[in-house]
Amino acid sequence: MTNTGQGCGRSPQAAGWFTVVVYLNAVATGFVTMACEILGIRYLSPYFGGSIYTWSALISTVLVALAVGYFAGGQLADRRPSTLLLGGLLTAAAAWLAAIPFLAAPLLDGTFDLIADERAGSLAGAVALFFVPMTLLGTFTPFAIRLTLRTPLRSGTVAGRIYGLATVGGTLGVLVTSFQLIPTFGTRAITFGLALLTLGCGLSCLALAAEGRPARRNAGGPGRLLLIALAAAPLLLGGAETARADRHGAGAESPAAYDRRMLLELPNGDIEELETEYARIFIRKSGSYLTMSFRLRGGDHLQSIANLDHPQELPAPYTQVLTAAVLYAARTRSLLMLGMGAGTTSRYLWRHIPGLSVQAVELDPGVIALAKKYFGARAADGYRIQRGDARVFLRRNPQRHDMILVDAYRSDRVPFHLATREFFRLARSRLTEGGVLAMNLTAGTRLTPSVVATLRTVFEQVDTFGAGSQVVAFAYDGERPSRDALRERAAALQARFGFYHNLEHLVGSRMPLPVGPDTPVLTDDFAPADLYRADPAGGGD
Q1: Collapsed DSSP state (helix, strand, coil) of residue 471
Q2: Residue 539 falls within a domain, yes or no?
Q3: How many CB atoms lie within 10 A of CB 123?
Q4: Are 207 and 224 in contact (CB under 8 A)?
Q5: pLDDT tens profile 89-111
């Protein structure tokens, strides 16, 4: 048997430390690799959305890059099994990761401008940002096996340990990044932290290379690693502080709580930016109008808008149309709002209808926080706010409601699990007798007719109203009221509640939406919502 690993020529104590450092680096590089994969969606989604195409592009890029890294690393490790070379590769990976926050905007802007197709664009963007560092990280595993291996008889054991530890690190990278880092820190700060962790791996390998030289054989490698870790700690803490500053951006002068007069006095432009685990949210002021928007495709996708001079106004046309749910509901005692946004629509109805009980459900805690801070969407008597997924909420809460309004867009996308037959059946079971479900959709896409067709498999009637670039569908059971009957009910409710936006004017927005007999019905098993949303064929109103 012959010695094959670089650690085999060391003393037993030094060889033990060598193996420990390699194993720790296996965990660390696995952590960084999977953390980058999770973090990558934060860079790509503002330009290409967070659809299955973007995720597929990112995952494919990482897998191919790792495969290239494994092949190239194996060749290099056989030709030159050196911790010095491995340290250089990891240091190069750290440098590239540290550059990503600066490269992302120009690279992705250019990719977005050059490639119109969402799928090809997201793939090109993922390759431009992550292929090189993932390839460099991929070289670690074959190097680690080659350097640690002392005898061919233990090759399976050594390879299994290193791959196993790397997988453990990758699992931690997914969980820690998703559950802790992204909700707490900004994307840039996390990227810098991952770069520092990778740099620590590279420096530790360089320290092992120096430790193996005869003149410095007993120089105390573990102590050197500790010094490196201590030196990196202040940088990580500085990154955390930078993240906190980035997350609040221009909001230093914004009110601590909703104050309409103070908001009116603020200059136009950005007020606050908040990055959450779901989106980057922007609060902006233009004259008397205050907006909440998400960053998407190099621009902003409006989520909510309010008029500070006239708080009763619903400036977005589709939100006005959503209030027409009262025309179809037999009673107006309770409302469930799935997708609260800034709370403008649900609070509008709550203010106008005495005794209306409102339950608002919002997935993103950042949206809730900003809605309270800037739009006055606070819990009050008869108005409750709860964080959670809309479908999970329905499953866990059997209460019935007279009206259920679904406005759960994430940027310009409807979550697929909120557009299937199974979801609509669940929602129907949470309606009182004579209740109505209203849903906001985007006009002119293949998705909207499919959602309407799906609603018709669950409810006896589905009416559609036009609202600019949006379509609002009202699903209910019973006979379909004529336009004259709707006008009479609208006049009665308008006289009773005094709505700011006259219900009688909304009746004219009702119009048929063509739905062909071959229009696909969406189910939990088959719901290509991303594809249909991007496809204009068969859409329109």
Answers
A1: strand
A2: no
A3: 22
A4: yes
A5: 999 999 999 999 999 989 988 89
- The CA distance from 291 to 288, in Å, is 10
Identify whether residues 369 and 509 lie together within a single domain: yes
Measured over the CA atoms of residue 428, residue 501, residue 290 and residue 373, the dihedral's sign is negative
Residues 6+ apart with CB under 8 A from 353: 326, 332, 497
In one-letter notation, the amino acid at residue 118 is E
540 lies in some domain:
no
- Count how many domains the chain has: 3
Q: Find the range with the poorest average confidence among 137-146, 242-251, 442-451.
A: 242-251
Pair 150, 278 in one domain: no
Provide the CB-side half-sphere exposure for 240 (13 A, CA).
Answer: 10
The residue written with tokens 């250019």 in the block is 110
pTM of the model: 0.74
Shared domain for 260 and 227, answered yes or no, is: no
Mean pLDDT of 264-277: 89
Residue 223 lies in a domain: yes
Buried b (16+ CB within 10 A) or exposed e, 91-117: bbbbebbbebbeebeebbeebbeebee
- Give the domain extent around 269: 251-305
Nearest to 16, CA basis, from 24, 25, 7: 7
Give every strand in the sheet of 431-442, ordered side by side.
383-387, 357-362, 334-338, 401-406, 431-442, 470-476, 461-467
460 and 492, same domain (yes or no): yes
